[in-house]
Design goal:
The chain has a domain at about 375-465: Lipocalin, CATH 2.40.128. The protein has about 475 residues and is an alpha+beta fold. It has helices spanning about 15-30, 75-85, 115-120, 140-145, 165-180, 180-190, 205, 235-240, 245-255, 270-275, 340-355, 375-380, and strands at about 10, 35-40, 45-50, 65-70, 200, 215, 225, 240-245, 280, 290-295, 300, 305-315, 320-325, 330-335, 380-385, 385-395, 395-405, 415-425, 430, 440-445, 450-455, 460-465. A hairpin with a 7-residue loop joins strand 19 (about 430) and strand 20 (about 440-445). The radius of gyration is 21 Å and the shape is globular.
Amino acid sequence: MFEVNRVTARSSSLDAAHWQRRLDVLAENHGVAGAVLGILHGDDMMSAAFGVTNMRTGAPVQTDTVFQIGSITKVYSATAALRLVADGVLDLDKPISTWLPTLRLADDAAHRVTLRHLLTHTSGIAGDVFTDTGRGDDCLERYVDGLASVPQLLPPGTGFSYCNSGFSLVGRVIEQVTGKVWDRAMHDLLFAPLGLDTTMTLPEEALLHSAAMGHEHQADGTLQPAARWGLPRSNGPAGGIVCTARDVLAFSRFHLNDGRVPDGNTLLPRALVRDMRSTQIELPFYDGDNNALGLAWFRQTWDGQSLIGHDGYTVGQNAFLRLLPSHQLAVVLLANGGPAPDLYRALYSEIFAELAGVAMPSPLHPPQGSSGFDTGHHVGTYLGYNHEHEVLDDDGVPSLRWAATGSLVDVMPTTEGEYEAIAAGGDLLLYREPGQRRWRPATFVQLPDGRSGLYIGLRAYIRAS
């Protein structure tokens, strides 16, 4: 039995004890190592904790335990960049070569990729570049120099493909115009003004706190502490923030309050905050959650209501953030191992129904009967950068395999595998990872440049000729 930790609440209007009980029951049922749940509703805030920071030591998770929030970091980096836009230092629609004149990208894209492209994952740059350029303050500069050898998957501005490397590039732009390393610039532009006292970017800072260690499933099926802490420092602007759930809610309050900080002053103009959560592009597929993208924020529709949010995954840790502006509601779940996506669905469906009367969309399910999927038409290998998928025909039944290559091998717990896959439509497979309940879509499309592609995990993969 995991240890249950103290609940904190700012007001009795949120039933903190109830949500602690629900976290306890659902997290244990799903086999999650540790988690913190945070809820912000109007002026009221609460958090609840469950489990252990490290299954080897048994140290309990506290409500002030820091977790890696992974790609939710992208919203923070975007917010910092927009502060510089508001000050006239940056411009959303100028080429990034304006501020990085020596930048080199494949296909001369440096003179065409804009900050808006980077913040909407439409730069076309191959996204899963996890090159470790060291721990020095020049790590982002060296990382960006290395992008010269990274291919363009799509022409800039023509299509969506989730792009971690693009946000490292955003971080380098921030460094260039502020004269500070990204870590310091984030502190000065965002963490300090918002009072985010338990938000940090470096592991040596996290060690000063109760810190959650990621856990990964091993070959024998057990959940064990991960072999390393997190991503390389050069990927910091894309996924390097470590913080408490309470600080994530404070950041969420800033966005729900249209850029106002607790003292009532405006840190970011309302128009830019609204631009961040307004539709910039429609996604060319439905992944069961997201249907559009703002500036870094993903947009979702639940029961007719518009939400914004982002998820994060690092080495054995998951983070889920959803904001419902119409109800001044934000919910964050931080977890450090096990089937956290299933816990997220179980908890959030209850929270949003009870606090806002909003139903979470039903998860994707395999269809009954024939799907019309033409396995032979879609058979082939679909290539990304450091990652590929292969669709196979097993007597008319599709199967889906994947493999990691290059620098991605260093950040993945396993380097190849096969999904459980079921045909679900003419151009749609549903797949799920071993040990998880949730089905996800693999969508076959014709890309804007005419090539055949496959969208999996928000990323575009190009069919090999």
